[in-house]
Design brief:
Radius of gyration: 16 Å
Largest sheet: none
Structural class: mainly alpha
Shape: globular
Number of helices: 10
Number of strands: 0
Distance between the termini: 33 Å
Low-confidence stretches: none
Amino acid sequence: MGRAALLVLADGRFPAGGHAHSGGAEAACKAGRIHDAASLEDFCRGRLHTAGLTAAALAAAAALGLDPAVLDAAADARTPSPALRTAARRLGRQLLRAARATWPAAELDALATAFPRGAHQPVVLGLTARAAGLGPLDAAHAAAYESIGGPATATVRLLGLDPFEASGVLARLAPELDDVAARAARAAHRARLEGPDALPAASSPLLDIAAEVHAGWPVRLFAS
């Protein structure tokens, strides 16, 4: 299958459930860390090089054919926040439903059987890319883009930010996103030989703390 499948997978209208999650932007907006386009760009850059890199490498490794159960355990170890682990599995379950309907594959069926409550979303994303005929770099690009596209879109709703400004943020970060995706794909190839410890484990403690705070809010616009 050609690269057009990547456009389908990365399309915000693909029914994978991401629209209900802000990627930490809601908590950051409330705390005043995101208040305009410049601060959104800083937030997205930080997220891209930490959570985004980690997710992209996991997705690339899954697309490369590494054992999804091993990768799911690696994702768990790289997600210290219980709230984020719950969100990742919820998103993984929703993505897997969409993926199985769109690109039926035995590997996706096996993943659904092995993880009835949902596997971590980046692992599902990588296996979905594999089912769609895409490679590890494609999967890494999709995961990396999602790590910043979600917060940028959410901030338009949260702050009434001009959508043109939000799109500008994503465009300015595009060269860095390409670099992160390439690093993630290289790490996935190393992991095939060296095991999951070769995958990045970039930390973002403030995102973890904010996720726990956000989970306790009685009223919120986004699930995470």
